[in-house]
Amino acid sequence: MNDRLMNHSRTSFWLLGLGALSLLPQTAQALDPFTNASDTLGNSGLSSGVAIGVTDMNADGLDDIVRLDDADSLEIEYQQPDGSFVNYVFGNLPGSQWGMALGDYDGNGYVDVFASGAYNGLKFIRANETGDDFDLTVMNSPDVFTQCVNFADIDNNGTLDLFVCHDDGLSAPLNNDGTGTFTYDTGLINAVSTVPSDNSGNYGSVWTDYDSDGDLDLYISKCRLFVNEPMDGRRLNLLFENDGNGNYTDVAEAVGLRPGAQSWSMDFGDIDNDGDMDAFILNHDMLSQLYVNEGNTYTDITTAAGMNADLAAVDQGIQSYFEDFDNDTYLDLLMTGREGEHRLFMNNGDLTFTAEANPFPTDGLGIQSAAVGDLNADGFRDVVAGFATGYNNPSNANPDRLFLNPGNDNNWLDVRLTGVQSNASAVGARIELHGAWGVMVREVRAGEGYGITNSFIRHFGLGKAETIDSVVVRWPSGQVDTAENPDVLNQQVHIIEGCPDSWYADTDGDGYGDASTSVGGCLPPQGYVGDDTDCDDTDPDNYPDNVEVCDGADNNCDEQADEGLDCMPDPTGGADSTGGNESAGDPTETATSGPAPTSGPVDPTSDDGSSGGETGAADGGDGGCGCTTGGSGGAGFTLLGFGLLLGLRRRRDGLLARR
User: Fold this and answer.
1) What are the C-alpha distances in Å from 532 to residues 171, 375, 502, 512, 624?
2) Which has the closest alpha carbon to 38: 503, 438, 360, 415?
3) What are the residue ranges of helices labelled H in 275-357?
4) What is the pLDDT of residues 373-382, one digit of tens each?
5) DSSP 3-state assignment of 181?
6) pTM of this prediction?
7) SS3 87
8) Contact present, 311 and 333 (Cβ < 8 Å)
9) 339: pLDDT confidence band, cut at 50, 70 and 90?
10) Crossing angle, helix 3-18 and helix 633-658, to 10 degrees?
11) d(CA 82, CA 600)
């Protein structure tokens, strides 16, 4: 875990040590405006078209930024632990790119890139075995005008396939043979329009389990310019329901998600924490619509949600994305547009939304496209914004901007997944978070909206809640992993399919566990850690690499007590006269706890001043055991010992957070 994530988790475990309380989350709190941190980017002058991506590209737990300068030159901004970015330039791709998807399609542990545009080839940009360089392969068939693209395991065989929305005809599914080689294959899904047509008008696409039955369904937003008949098949949205065997049936009209509008993009998300997927459809020739899922049928609640005026102001919308920006447990909605307007709708927790007036410092510019992730590792979602004009015309006068979320004091949890039987990127996995809020649901998607990709690291705001009842991961393979009462808060956790990890009881709270108390699971239960090297789990002053002091105990877990120390006999009958026996009654005795451990990462917030040498907490600095002092010096050593204890506690919290 990087230091910035660790600093957040340190506070959480201190609170848990005092006794966690299950508190109901409060409703949305207004955020302060986002800040412009574009100067932290390696290339702050880049201007994207509509296609932007954010996800962890190199498996270090930090979200990175993938962009196309002038819509054709691929660059990646790798986030660093200190909050800066290092820019990698791949270079030009043939033609202007309209859609981009990210995903590890060859299973080597590093994320690859797909991009394409108007009849200029399908570009597969594959990461090498070390993730620090890429190779380009161009497929010229099928020849399509690409709009949105998605990686998804369509045939559920453990590899990522590809779905390419085609503006001028039938959308193109491509089957991955498992090595990263793709073949055009309508046997995966044949996305023909229900009302017969030339099958054109495919703009936005989302693979989602809308009916919560364990398999992926596909929604396509349809728009055909200059086609004004609402019942024309070229502009009727499609929801292909999967029967679990790879057979798809359009149910958009039956479930209430076929508005008859010119739709551009859409998103699915659980806005009311009842465990199912609600929906938002972005339309161009009628008001965009918010829907609530009522048992796999959808009801339009746009007017009741109080969104009409602001939706009308955006007019020609481009992207729509659900995310909890204020960490209050409720999904908010980001909407961008091509006519100089955008909106951030904050969820009030009662199926109504309030639009933030000026959430982003854009100097009056409207955000045309955007992608979302945690771009300073603080547990709050940030935004990479592009200011293209029209549908995909980069604006060189207005480069992209990185807007950082100001955050608040709400709690959070981020979940990073790695598939084993499922695809490595865990695309299609569904994460449930059960607690006082109800059931929050997130899905891992690789390509959505209108040609963008948002972070695979799934985010949960927790409001004021300080405990989680359970975390459940439903993998594409059918594997279900569950962590009950996990001891995680304000941190990112990494769950590997099948949960091979073991956890150990940490009774004394020193960050080290008892090897005899092993339990398996995805995440540590309350009071458990990942370390199993504690030699005495009843004493918080005995753990590996601690400094030995004269107390008759094995402080550093090397099976020896007081080794290397000249410990004087204790005339009161104790092990020594260093202050380990309070019955000695000497008010000038120094503290018995040693300084911060001498090995492993050092907590920069600790102010104990320890150098980690041979000197113990009470040895007087000469390697011996100078047990007592006279006069006023005793008070100074007592204060020093208290300071050492505080420093030790801080480091223990940091170690516990790392696990």
Assistant:
1) 53, 33, 9, 6, 32
2) 360
3) 308-314
4) 999 999 999 9
5) coil
6) 0.81
7) strand
8) no
9) confident
10) 110
11) 19
